[in-house]
Write a structure and sequence with these properties.
The protein is of the alpha+beta class. Helices cover 16% and strands 29% of the residues. It has helices spanning 7-11, 29-36, 90-97, 147-154, 162-174, 178-181; strands spanning 40-47, 52-57, 62-67, 74-80, 83-87, 106-108, 116-123, 136-139, 189-197, 204-207, 216-221, 225-231, 251-257. Strand 4 (74-80) and strand 5 (83-87) form a beta hairpin. The longest helix has 13 residues, at 162-174. The protein is globular. The protein starts with 6 loop residues before the first helix and ends in a 23-residue tail after the last strand.
Length: 280
């Protein structure tokens, strides 16, 4: 295809941020930081290697996903614990905050709710930033490894990918089949995963996670949460995912309660104010 004479001019046009966030209500991080000093651990759940586990977090509590045995990434789903139709919306979270999340940013729920579900309050990998390849950690660009794409690209049946792990664990929690549960499974926060897009053709890539034993990502539950975390069969994702050969480790989910009165002034976010008339 012939390049037009004004190709350089077209490419030089400056980009415009789609969703300026200057008017986005900011979480009260100083309040959360003070509350963190009073935390008492009240529960914990282990996501076994190549498996997923569910957990619940009351609003006003904190939870951490922690590396406990070795470098391991995890795929996280979140729902409103009282209404599974309200779930984590990676696309809008990405549009508001960017491709990767860290301290001070929030996980937003699906339409018509569109409100913060959780706020990231501490990230021990916050130092990583963006590397020379364009990679960073905790992405909202990857969808989760799944058996459908595996069959499409490699053939065969593989059942311990994150989509199936999440479906089985959620089904067990709800008392329904994995086939019924998978309708609720959605795009994930790739916790600890190091990803980006290649410079040449913009293809999604992964590389060895920088996470080490003791690292954690901490969240504040803005609403009552049901979570499901899969310890990805790719391990640290340095080579491949959906694999029975990658070295994999468990991930620990810890739930913490702040002291009474530590969150004075905080309230659960209300659902989005759009009237849903859609111009009719």
């Amino acid at each position: 295809m012939t390049e037009p004479k004004d190709a350089a001019l077209r490419r030089s046009i400056k980009p415009v941020i789609c969703y300026p966030v200057e008017t986005l209500p900011a979480p009260n991080m100083s309040l959360f930081e003070d509350a963190r000093k009073t935390l008492i651990k009240v529960d914990e759940v282990i996501a076994a290697p190549r498996e997923a586990a569910t957990f619940t977090v009351p609003s006003g509590h904190f939870f951490r996903i922690r590396s406990v045995e070795g470098s391991q990434v995890g795929d996280l789903n979140l729902w409103n614990a009282n209404d599974l139709s309200e779930k984590f919306y990676t696309g809008k979270t990405r549009a508001l905050h960017g491709t990767h999340l860290t301290t001070g940013q929030q996980m937003w729920s699906s339409f018509p709710y569109l409100r913060p579900m959780a706020t990231i309050t501490h990230d021990t990998l916050g130092w990583y930033g963006i590397d020379d390849f364009g990679g960073s950690v905790h992405d909202v660009i990857g969808t989760r490894c799944d058996p459908y794409t595996h069959t499409l690209l490699a053939g065969g049946q593989y059942h311990h990918c994150c989509h199936s792990n999440l479906s089985r664990a959620l089904g067990d929690y709800l008392g329904i089949s994995a086939q019924e549960a998978e309708a609720h499974v959605h795009d994930v926060l790739n916790v600890f995963m190091c990803t980006g897009f290649t410079r040449d053709i913009g293809q999604y890539f992964m590389k060895a996670s920088p996470v080490r034993v003791g690292d954690y990502l901490e969240f504040f539950a803005e609403i009552d949460l049901l979570g499901c975390l899969s310890a990805c069969p790719g391990g640290d994702c340095s080579d491949q995912h959906s694999s029975d050969t990658a070295q994999c480790h468990p991930l620990l989910v810890e739930i913490f309660k702040p002291a009474d009165g530590a969150l004075s002034g905080w309230e659960t976010p209300v659902v989005n104010g759009y009237n849903r008339s859609h111009g009719l």
